[in-house]
Amino acid sequence: MTIVLGSNRYGKAENRIVRIYRDTPRHEIHDVSVSTALHGDFAAAHLVGDQLHVLPTDTQKQTAYSFAKEKGLLSIESYGIDLATHFVDHIEPVAGARIEIEEFAWERVVVDGAEHNHTWVRRGQEVRTAAISVEGTGPAQQVWVVGGLKDLVILKSTGSEFAGFMQDPYTLLQPTNDRVMATSVTAGWRFMTTDVDWEATYAGIKQILITQFATVHSLALQQTLYRMGEAVLEAYPFIAEIRLSAPNKHHFLYDLSPFNVANNDEVYHAADRPYGLIQATITHDDAPDAGPAWDSYTGLV
Amino acid sequence: MTIVLGSNRYGKAENRIVRIYRDTPRHEIHDVSVSTALHGDFAAAHLVGDQLHVLPTDTQKQTAYSFAKEKGLLSIESYGIDLATHFVDHIEPVAGARIEIEEFAWERVVVDGAEHNHTWVRRGQEVRTAAISVEGTGPAQQVWVVGGLKDLVILKSTGSEFAGFMQDPYTLLQPTNDRVMATSVTAGWRFMTTDVDWEATYAGIKQILITQFATVHSLALQQTLYRMGEAVLEAYPFIAEIRLSAPNKHHFLYDLSPFNVANNDEVYHAADRPYGLIQATITHDDAPDAGPAWDSYTGLV
Amino acid sequence: MTIVLGSNRYGKAENRIVRIYRDTPRHEIHDVSVSTALHGDFAAAHLVGDQLHVLPTDTQKQTAYSFAKEKGLLSIESYGIDLATHFVDHIEPVAGARIEIEEFAWERVVVDGAEHNHTWVRRGQEVRTAAISVEGTGPAQQVWVVGGLKDLVILKSTGSEFAGFMQDPYTLLQPTNDRVMATSVTAGWRFMTTDVDWEATYAGIKQILITQFATVHSLALQQTLYRMGEAVLEAYPFIAEIRLSAPNKHHFLYDLSPFNVANNDEVYHAADRPYGLIQATITHDDAPDAGPAWDSYTGLV
Amino acid sequence: MTIVLGSNRYGKAENRIVRIYRDTPRHEIHDVSVSTALHGDFAAAHLVGDQLHVLPTDTQKQTAYSFAKEKGLLSIESYGIDLATHFVDHIEPVAGARIEIEEFAWERVVVDGAEHNHTWVRRGQEVRTAAISVEGTGPAQQVWVVGGLKDLVILKSTGSEFAGFMQDPYTLLQPTNDRVMATSVTAGWRFMTTDVDWEATYAGIKQILITQFATVHSLALQQTLYRMGEAVLEAYPFIAEIRLSAPNKHHFLYDLSPFNVANNDEVYHAADRPYGLIQATITHDDAPDAGPAWDSYTGLV
């Protein structure tokens, strides 16, 4: 029985880069958190502490900041591809790179009815995400891109039921035909190509997710999620699959009957924990292999 | 030397109440966190554990939820006045009540070009706040209302300087005539009346704060804050004073010169800590006494 | 009606300083977050953006780090006094300074039965705090020191009641004669002198707070808090007053009766929100004036 | 090209269960957060909203609380096995269950030199974790158990180098032969059996991790992690593999030379972001298949 080094990676997490475009008086802002992770033949560093083939995480940071100017930072997907490809192509011991990016949205303030040139407020709604994996060099090089979002908190005050469910001896829940349904959507969608209008696609997918949540009469959060994902795949044939994670942010109807106050679905307690958590993948049945596309750097390797 | 009970209060913090108005198909939502605090003659509870005059915090919670229906929850200021007055007027041992409220904004989603009737996304920008203090009963009763906001994150990419400052042996900072200025505004404004259009006033003040931040050419965050507050007081004569707290969320220009990359105020590092913190009060010189208006329940009593 | 600048202050918040003492192989560590706030005649900065009398917040930061070596960082109270006095004595426009410090505790790891010389784990229990205010110069100079702690989470599984309380139409709560009582103590104690063994006093007060919580049979959290504070004042006559803030971290007995499972005070749900919040001051009746001792920098000025 | 439902699961996350053992005056406390996730044939719920085979997440919650009494909650690993097995064995549509648990440690307070019977403070150091996956029924049933911890913050003030690393045009970092090394360890270890003394094993592994961190002279965090993992596998042959994730919590030596103050590795700035992030698996070369052992419920399915 031999003890060996298994999978491993390293990098610099959460570089907080803000890129201003200021070539005209109307500036543009891109505000991101970038994490880089490299893997390859780094066994010597682990086994004997030899750093000869280890590109410091500080160097990865410097590169990430410099690329915001050298390559530009307009779409996080293309910036991430540039950065990942650089590490794989130019740093010899690197076999593969993963870049994870969060983008924080700002909206231009309006002054005297006009959008201001160089002032914004944080929009604070959802966070846009991207994860790029590049493996190998030359003709064998493969690139996986996952776009996504998180923290999209959405609520409907009617049009949602939960009834007809399974019963066992621990089942106390009462069925309901009209409830508040709320969630905080995390979604990732995997592209089958990099020839994409990243900005338009992001906006389109977000609108589809919202529209489906609003308009599907929901018999369960599972059903709503499926319809959200299905609509995205129907609209964008170059997306292989979409994965959704949705906490059921419970809003419990508050019992006001002891006070002789009618509560006709009007007053709720918004609970913190516990919460239901529903996760689903909607995919093409012949989707290409996902490879490392979903191997998040925030989990254990 | 005698040990005695000093100031004290108690209540129920962070009741997460969601109120839906659904009298027409176009629902409305109000999503708040309500904290109640009572003070009065509660010495027996402290000194000998006698609860005879202690209205349980659970009862305060029940009241807060029920009032969302009984009194309605349209403006947090008026709801807070209703709740505070109730405790002072109807619970005999209570000499004064303080209600602190945070309101989380939702915006209606747009589906097929039209605002949806019953689906929203959390706007996630600033949190609106209110603090109501009521002291005494009958003709002697006094009411203080402080409106406010927090977490309004705002940034300008030019139009901000910091130069000509004091020097001492620990001063290393270089002056700058063009920098990114960003902050997360916390503000509270004290009303001199309760005869107010709370919704219009909130919207108006927020717009003034944003407009001043955007349009004042800033020589220092102090100057910007003063002008923000001054403009609010000029526009709303029934506001006695405004208090502002603004962290200087530093954006440091990133040095790309080692890589022979020009950085013309384009690439920044957004730092977390430490941060400058500027606080100021802008007030009428003859403002009426603030009483307990600013005695926040989140601090020590 | 004239608009004027009211109270104001500025500084550098959350400097994360780690000080290692390494004069012998047995190192010592002090890990703190330091915030500095200055006030004085800074009207020109607010009114016209003139920085001539403004010591930059960056300079305050440099001073805080340098003083960790120059003056040492053994007790946060004495370090804070050094720093506050420096700003008031040596920076001409400064009338008063406030230093707020949090200290994070580390405990030495044990290897082969012996404490290790230079390795620690974060203890992660309570955070020790100090707030120092210095006003004026020369013989008129006054110094206020408040020691304290926060996040001391403590629980007792019996020895706590809540019964005999006031009833009104909104009261649903049932009395109980045996409950779990848990809280997260925030405490501040104000010294009447600076001639104090800071380390021994901190350890002594923490032990008293814990002992009283454990051993007082509690009829209400109010009563427990009073006894905690009273015991501190009895033990340390140089403490003028102590202020306590204690959320009632509710542990609700879980109803297992639908499953025919007995729950003899054994299974609880630990709730997040809402929570009761009890605050009290225990003081000497002739305590000297508190001055600015309690004017926390985290609130509005 | 057909759109289909891919992998999916659902459950109740973050049930905050506190279990008191009170059969003698010396009580015991177990404080956990339990998440349950089920998978199986739930396609009807997704595709057409049919709940007939869906055991509500509320029922999963009720079961988790009841099992804390019915089965007991002494070791989180065995409690998790009981709960997972229940869902797979007794809920017909369930093909597999995953239970994830966090345990928060309390330590008995000491009063008058003796441990108190029923009062504790939260220890607040690391959080113990467990993840149990059960797949299939009857003789084909398989069980995977991963023990672990997170948030073990550990620091050494000497005995750590980083030098001799790779250089590229973006490399600015200077080598160092004496630095502060600090991290917050997340670890998971996979058992090859369920016949384990869970408590002794947890304590033993934690001690090994700490000892190795303290005593290995570190040439890189990678090397330290490998030695930590290797030592665990050497001591516990029934552990198949251990996975470690360790942020390099940078402590930057503060430059005091402008003030003519010597800083002999004594004053540091503790930085928040960005941070290095090192991840590694140390494994037996013939470890059995990991199956779903590492499929965390907090990520996308």
Automatic annotation (TrEMBL), chains A, B, C, D:
Binding locations of 5-hydroxyisourate: T57, F162, R179, Q222, N248
Binding site for O2: T57, N248
Pathway where it operates: Purine metabolism; urate degradation; (S)-allantoin from urate: step 1/3
This protein's UniProt keywords: Oxidoreductase, Purine metabolism
Top enzyme class: oxidoreductase
Active site: K12 (charge relay system), T57 (charge relay system), H250 (charge relay system)
Source organism, top-level taxon: Bacteria
Annotated GO biological process: purine nucleobase metabolic process; urate catabolic process
Annotated GO MF terms: urate oxidase activity
Catalytic activity as recorded in UniProt: urate + O2 + H2O = 5-hydroxyisourate + H2O2
SUPFAM superfamilies: Tetrahydrobiopterin biosynthesis enzymes-like
Entry EC no(s): 1.7.3.3
Residues reported in the UniProt entry to bind urate: T57, D58, F162, R179, Q222, N248
NCBIfam families assigned to the protein according to its UniProt record, in alphabetical order: urate_oxi (TIGR03383)
Function field: Catalyzes the oxidation of uric acid to 5-hydroxyisourate, which is further processed to form (S)-allantoin.
Family membership noted in the UniProt record: Belongs to the uricase family.
Listed name of the protein: Uricase
Native species: Cryobacterium glaciale
